[in-house]
Amino acid sequence: MTIAEVVTVNPAPTDVALHRSLGLTDDELTAIVERLGRSPNDLELAMFSVMWSEHCSYKSSKPLLRTLPTGGDGVVAGPGENAGVVSIGDGLAVAFKIESHNHPSAVEPYQGAATGVGGILRDIFTMGARPIAVLDALRFGDPSEARTRLLVDGVVRGVGGYGNCVGVPTVGGELVFDPSYAGNPLVNVMAIGLLEERHLTRAAAPGPGNLAVLFGSTTGRDGIGGASVLASATFGDDDPSKRPSVQVGDPFAEKLLIEASLELIEGGLVEGLQDLGAGGITCATSETADRAGTGIRIELEAIPRREPGMAPFEVLISESQERMLAIVREERLAAVAAVCERWALPWAVIGRVTDDGDITVVDAEGRELARIPAPALTSDAIVHERLAAPPQRRRAAPAPGVPNTVQDGLPERGMDPGAVLLALLGSSNLASRRPVFEQYDSTVQVNTVTGPGQGAAVLRVKGTSKALVAATDANAGVGGFDPWLGAAMSVAEATRNVSLTGARPLGVTNCLNFGDPTRPEAFWQLQEAVRGLGDACRALGLPVTGGNVSLYNESPSGTILPTPEIGVVGLLDDVSRLVRPAFAADGDTILLVGEAGPGLAGSDYAALAGTAAGDGPPAIDLAREAGLQRFLRDAAERGLLGSAQDVSGGGLAVALAECAIWGGRGARVRVPVSASPAADLFGESPSRVVVTSRPRHAPALALLARQHGLPVETLGVVGGARLFAELVGAGATGAAEERGAGVADAIDVAVKDLAHAWEHGLGRALGWTGQA
Amino acid sequence: MTRIGVVVFPGSNCDRDTLHAVELAGAEAVELWHESPTLDGVAGVILPGGFAYGDYLRAGVIARFSPVMRAVADFAANGGLVLGICNGFQVLAEAGLVPGALLRNRDLRFLGREVRIVAERTDTPFTSGLDRGRPMRLPIAHGEGCYFADDATLDTLERDGQVLFRYATAEGEAAAEGDRISNPNGSLRAIAGVLNATGNVAGLMPHPERASEAILGSRDGFGIVRSFVGAAAKRAAAPVLVGGGA
Fold this sequence. Notes:
The complex is a heterodimer of chains A (772) and B (246). Chain A is α+β, with helices and mostly antiparallel strands. By secondary structure, chain B is of the alpha/beta class. Chain B has a single domain (3-237), classed as 3-Layer(aba) Sandwich (Rossmann fold), CATH 3.40.50. Chain B has helices at residues 15-24, 67-77, 87-94, 151-159, 222-237; strands at residues 3-8, 28-33, 44-47, 81-85, 101-103, 111-119, 136-142, 146-148, 163-167, 191-195, 201-204. The chains are: A alpha+beta (772), B alpha/beta (246). Chains A and B meet through helix 8 and helix 10 of A and helix 1 and strand 6 of B.
């Protein structure tokens, strides 16, 4: 090969070896040479650098991810495909996946977030599914800081700008503030699609002789090295040189791409379909070829460019958005071209499937510029065994069943629990997200039964009695103390939010946001979190159907809290049996199912008031969580529930307040306090729900809870314009009298005041004034 | 069965929703491709919401030059019933088929929420099935929905009964000036929808097709869809020509 003079990669400082300037280590170069049996040329090295990036290869996380449960009833496609697919009956299936776009969003928030939405949507329709919903899970630093506000504004506009235009509703997600995300915000986007099972399409390139057709946008210089430069390295201080690495989104082109792709699939015109994301043409060709055991010969000059003078490596690793690769039989090319042209999408035959198993790149004269076995770029990419080491100082959860001992909390602190409740409701992490989600279209496609703002999102499935229920959650606060526990709680909460509606969770997708895996402590966090994810999914009987790993989430100000973002989709067979969280009717009996445990560390209360030294996070009993979720589905099935809400951020008091605010009606309850009023009222120990029923059904509901092995307590009655919660029992110490103040051991606040605090908290935290 | 056409521009994203609502109203829904020079003999045309041609320049500005819009203009000039929803309203305004313009929302942000509107008239083909003065809950989802026209035009619209819908309070009162909750995009005189001078072309920003089934939280918009389908059916049976056209 005489390639050196044809192929040059961007001039790095001459004293740095090319492989290192591309982000490859010396060991990795050695491994490349082993796989090729020779030294790679510069173009091949560039191709390896994107494909062996953490983002594309999962080289640090692969050994961990193999431990996750992936099989299960109805799983049609699992990890390794573009998205997980689970059957929902009636010949239909749901495709879903969550993915990160953290680093692009840190550099350029609008485009970073917008292309995050675009990328995950492509993963969905590549499978043959029409995207029906987006959920965005966002994490930022302190909301009072100017930099955070800029990022929030840009990211929210980016999510909306893209999702609104393509016509996919944004129906849920999260917005969390924590100082650890200041230098490295998290933008995780989950997308859900619906397909007829017979249209399930694989991202494979079968059949030597078939054509590789690229359609959609042309290829430009945007997003060069996005995977290797941005996603796979730690940030330095403001680094404008990385800006060109962020892709630029065109939602209009994406909308055309969705329609054209689905038309091609429904017409049976393609043998395989793959979107172009990280790694561009190199990734799409090598992955599709590897899945089919074939090769692809790429004719470089046939690739339509956005600008002249692009070097071969730029063409091959560009991450220009809104492009698709279709594998097409020669006799169907005309029909494929007609569909593309009807949607005004440029298309080109850029190569052919071969039987040699290689990704080959040839120039206009037919000279070979690169030849790499497809597996070397994908399934046989390097895997690193990283070192894991726990931090030296840890605060762990107490074992389940350990009695309350923590004596910190309200009476001792001299706090009025009603004032604490108002402060929590108005705090940046618990207040209403309306100012954000109102910037999204949540109702397009006319499926939205429950949109953002009140628990899990509910989407009816047209033509059936069914609904899909979706939620995302990550408990990073607890994960900072104990990553196993944080992950287990994340799974528990996301699935619980789905089960609260009466739906049965179908599967879990996850986005693991962690630090630099070459640091043993960060890798230990990842290892523990994956173990927690697997343990929780096994306990709940759920498959992990796919996901994404985002490492190197660090900045000069430190590393992020370990953040295992969990996305869940569930199925409700009869949407008329949907249970909502809001108090439904005056006179309904309120029950608390499950019981509070000790441990305030990692809670919203702790963020507000601090915790006693040595206090740890609450524990979780996964068997009890599974029982609780079965109870919720049984109770919904029998029509016993007026409403159901779980106890999570802000504890029982906030759960009751939310039920009251959303239902527009108050309640009168007695809260049994065992040892610590703070833990009982504001603690976030898991596996607890506040459920209501008509009084005549309450005994049956309580009995059902006990049959599922769950403690149950009657709290009180729905009604009135105030939330009145009296503390009773051994832990209610009469502290009010001790203080001699007019503060009682009770919460007594008008629902309209609760609503006011909750509705205005976020706008105030972000300085978004003047909005209606 | 009455045939209602729904125009599909590249970038339309409420076309399927609108076809669905039209079918619920008992009509046959027909897609009209943007390159089509004819309307396929439909009895009424709806321009759906979305981002026609991406709307990167200004909402509706490119769509008005599409072949199908020449046919829609001819159809309207001959008295045909045309309804524009959201982006469809923007396209109609850009094409001069309804008066006024849609500017960026007052807060310069996209707004997706539920609003209340009241019908100012119930004697039009778009509102005949509605109760006058009853507040209706419909979603809005737009970045450019602030209705604007000069004072003289606004006075003319008021005088001639061309104000079809206004944003309203929960009690059904038209939103007062400065009521940012009831009229969140800042539309002048709280105008949410207008009629053309001959009363056969209407546009509105809220989405009736998204409020046409109880499962979605509101059926208030279905009255608009049904009124339109019903009026189109009558005209198909006995065509009328409205003056002032071709």
